[in-house]
Amino acid sequence: MNDTTPDLQLLGALALELKPGSQAALHALDQGAAGTLAQHIARDLSGFSPEASELQLVTVGAHYDVVELLRPGWPLHRELDQLAARAPGDARGRVIAFGAHAAQLPGALSPQPEHAGGPLRLVPFVLGGDADIAARIGDRFERELMERGMAGAATALFAQETFGLQVEHARYLTLHDLAAMMALQYEHAGLAPLWPVLEAALLAPDAEEWLEAGSEPVVHYADREARIALFTPEAWRTRYMPDAAHASEGDCDRLERAFEHFQARQRQFAAVLQAHGIPVNFVHCDAGVDSHAELA
């Protein structure tokens, strides 16, 4: 997928789309139930491509929000990969599932409570091993999984019953599929201008990206952090409303509301970036100075 992906791996997830108002009774399964879920997932993936059974499948008996999976370096999948690397023996065709012991998942696999209420819950998996097989399956899944990746009825029912969810649809997606889906959701939510910054952080974390679009906040992604320009009311007016230098009292009220909206937009951008695990640094900028120099 990119240079931050564990070698010879396909990273994906079982996506559980919940019925409106559904809340999980359980966020982490014990080892036995996690193993059964993993066997269901392995059977489904082999149905999409029989060669998948020749690779190692690693998963966890837990479900997460999209923002927990879509983070620079894919840390949740990398944690699965690193935990599985400790298991002795031949990895070919092996299925590894991590479950909870005394209500605690190993390593850094515990879902974050602040992201527990979303309508789409994801069970991540890592499928990998032989380079040629992994490459063939990876190409096939990237082309086809979005269109025909529905989970088996037994898998969906088991996930629903063990997690205590009301599942409307269950399907498999690669991380690229998830990223494309999230881009569309952010577009519908009015966050399309921010997506190039998120995309750079996810797919090329050492890249550089600028957001300087119309009335939007200025954001510079570099050195694996997002820097957001902070303006005083006067600096903001100079940069964004240069024709309002001689505003009337009524115009001043309107400008004050517009500045408050701008600040709310900054906070919204920061919250989205931080949810995806991207550090945010607010930098005080002067309207009379090139923002590229201030945020460099």
Largest sheet: number of strands, sense, barrel closure:
5 strands, mixed
With helices defined by DSSP (H or I, 4 residues minimum), what is the helix count?
10
Terminal CA distance: 29 Å
Order of H and E elements: EHEHHEEHHEHHEEEHHEH
Bin the helical content: 40-55%
What is the number of beta strands? Answer: 9
Note poorly predicted spans.
Answer: none
The backbone outline, from C-alpha atoms, is: elongated
**Number of domain units:** 2
Give the mean pLDDT. 90
| Category from helices, strands and their pairing | alpha+beta
Q: Would you give an account of this structure?
A:
This protein folds into 2 domains: 9-188, no CATH class; 192-295, no CATH class. It is 42% helix and 18% strand. It contains 10 helices and 9 strands. The longest helix has 27 residues, at 249-275. It is elongated, with a radius of gyration of 22 Å. The model has no long low-confidence stretch (mean pLDDT 90).
Name its key features:
single chain; 296 residues; alpha+beta; 2 domains; 5-stranded mixed sheet; 4-stranded mixed sheet
